[in-house]
Amino acid sequence: MPQRDLIILGAPGAGKGTHAEYLKNHMAYVHMSTGDILRAAVAGQTELGKQAQASMDAGALVPDELVIDLVQERMVELGAGVHYLLDGFPRTVGQAEALAQIGAELDRPQPLVVYLEVSDEEVVRRLGGRRMCGSCGAIYNLYRDGLDAGDRCPECAGELYLRSDDHREAILNRLEVYKRQTEPLIDYYQQRRRLVKVDGEQGQRQASEQVARLARGESDD
Ligand code: AMP
User: Fold this and answer.
1) Where on the phi/psi map is residue 36: left (φ > 0), alpha (ψ -120 to 50), or beta?
2) Contact, 197 vs 117, CB < 8 A?
3) Is there a contact between 166 and 133 (Cβ–Cβ < 8 Å)?
4) Which residues of the chain have a pLDDT value below 70?
5) Ligand 1 pocket, 56 CB below 6 A?
6) CB of 134 closer than 8 Å to CB of 159
7) pLDDT tens across 4-23, in order?
8) Is the omega angle on the peptide bond into residue 90 within 30 degrees of 0, that is, cis?
């Protein structure tokens, strides 16, 4: 089977961005992270950024219409043979239904959905230790990568920062929002036979390679 359009689904901190980065570097994918697009809009104080900022800082979801428009704009620009990799979208059943409609209008085959399974305790631990590089955008974890708070980016020496929604209160809220609004997508995609589960607590490299095999349509033994 040829390469597939892909959705990476999972709790905050499950590793969606990390595995998306791996796939982008090893396969021909156009990576669409609604979180990255929204953070750039907030940093640039665009109209979209101003509308999204308060929800994001509180760890809540921004309204469906805003993110659906974002994704639709980018999907329309994709060529027929170009594959997308969605990370952080869809996050609600309404978004999943909109995506199915956009895909049908553009005559794209249905995407494969990779669900990264990670326990709540691990999510809280990972998000508290997550650091982003302000220069190159790399994602690190203090525990996993053996870094100390205050260290600089090992790749480009940029400053590492804690995302404004990675403090404890917002983390707990994001987990709650995830369970209430996003977890129903597991059933949604399972019923449509499009969901494949991947252990998000195995080694990072192993999990990335497993996701890449699935994306290439190889059997997952
Ligand atoms: P992420 O980087 O994917 O964890 O997203 C960071 C924040 O951006 C989320 O906590 C939401 O506030 C917002 N966001 C990102 N993607 C979506 C989406 N698909 N629907 C609604 N809000 C989103």
Assistant:
1) alpha
2) yes
3) no
4) 1, 219-221
5) yes
6) yes
7) 999 999 999 999 999 999 99
8) yes
